[in-house]
Amino acid sequence: MEKPVYTLEFEKPLRDLSTQLEQLRQQSLENNLDVGSEIAAIERKIEATQREIYSSLTPWQKVQIARHPKRPYALDYVELICEGFVELHGDRQFNDDRALVGGTAFFNGDAVMIIAQQKGRETKEKIARNFGMPQPEGYRKALRLMKLAEKFGIPVLTFIDTPGAYPGIGSEERHVSEAIAVNLREMAMLRVPSISVVVGEGGSGGALGIGVTDRVLIFENSYYSVISPEGCAAILWKDAAAAPKAAEALKLNADQLEKLGVVDEVIAEPFGGAHNDIEQAAATLRYALQKHLNDLRGLKGDNLLDARYERYRRLGLYEEAGVVHN
Amino acid sequence: MSLFSKPKYSTVVVKKKDIPKGMWTKCPLSGEIVFNKELEDNQMVVPKSGHHFPIGARQRIAALFDENTFVEIDAGIRSADPLKFVDSQPYPVRIKKYEKESGLTEAVVCGTGEIHGIEVAVAVMDFRFCGGAMGSAVGEKITRAIETALKKKIPCLIFSASGGARMQEGIFSLMQMAKTSAALGRLAEAKLPYISILTHPTMGGVTASFAVLGDINIAEPGALIGFAGARVIKDTVKQTLPPGFQTAEFLQTHGLIDQIVSRLEMRDRLRDILRALYLRKLPPAKK
Lengths: 326, 287
Known about the structure:
Chain A is of the alpha/beta class. Chain A has helices at 12-31, 36-54, 59-66, 74-81, 123-128, 136-152, 169-173, 176-188, 204-208, 229-237, 243-250, 254-259, 278-297, 301-313, and strands spanning 82-87, 100-107, 110-117, 156-162, 194-203, 215-219, 223-225, 265-267, 318-320, 323-325.
């Protein structure tokens, strides 16, 4: 396990303790002093502070973890839980979108189709992957691969991690709205089992564009929202700095989404976030995916489509003749 | 009662909120001054310039259907407050305000009716109610309109006018995109025509779901149609946007819209399309 990194604002107390610990170790090395008990005391303090901070994260703090620069990205998980990933490029029409990738792989020995929104780790890759913001071609490639999966009868696994679809001139000219809308309709009609996992950011329509699946799983610190907290704050509070308030009001965190019935299972993360132990996070995900795939194997043809239709049909809460329906 | 004791400065009482206040309106296209009554009688289209002002759902329905054929459905569906959302004011307070301002119970009116004798299911959005934003109630009503078309084996028409998904219902609003699109998937499978009419403005999550999924996508002239807002795009790409960006005309040139149709010709154009795709023949000529 790597040494934990404390880069987020609310992790400052941990950052300070860490520095203290480092200095103490350095001093003991330089002056040949026995500071074992002091080190142990700080380590205990770090543990206690971790527990205090991480067990009562606010909605906004979780959003920050979901966007953590070290957060595992889709292909990190694919590498850990799948074998033989063969990337399939392009939408066969215009371009290959590197923010939304896909291909065949084997999950516990069975063929699956992977569709994944992918962010870049270093600056160059970040740019190449457009910071995880797909353009129309990404959604059209995703649809092409899902249809391929349907043709050959293999389940679809999608990994959601995007701040949103790319808001650019070309994106509009080539109708990103149409690309997303068609995916929503076609995914609802896809005759193979499908599971999506929100691994980081579930940014609005850009996320939903690969998210209409039989099951929706979400990592504990991931979020899924109709609008970014900053965007919502700017519109409703007239101040982007009100993002923490908006994050709370939007009920966008994993546990809240589960209560609302929008997601089927929350995948537990290692303490402080999945980046602190990616192997453990991947193992938990692997277990959950296998379980849901097994469940879905029992549903065939129209039964599968009917269950999926019902899953989305019942989402929403409204009033009818004075009675609240959910 | 103070409202009624105020001195009257004008003898004309304008009830409809989508009409600019007063007796006269300036056409933003030609600058000409139009009498409001004249506008109302012409479906809010400026007679000379052809500029389309927004039109209320009820007014549109009255102009669209054969007399006495429209039957409203699901009028009792209203917004609840699933997230107990509060920003500068609680969401239910806003809803009350929208109801009062628009005289409507939601941002969409649904039903069935006949266009030149052809029965269709219809959903007509109204921008005056919360900017036509789609929450659970709007999504439910639109889904039911589509399901009505399925059940009665008739075509479905949706007139969009919306700023996008309704923020105050959070993830539920987003999920209405999936719900409505899934219903359209079933309609497509049943080979029943779906005609989408995009009116000013149609943006965000409404554009990225049912509004662009029509077998035929029609737009009204000059309508603003897009996914991301122009300001967001400008801030992202940091360049000036092309002229006419995100207008109906721009989108027809770029291949999203089958045809731009004036509101004044809408009824007849819909008849022609429904005859082609649904009846698949011309009715026998009247002698």
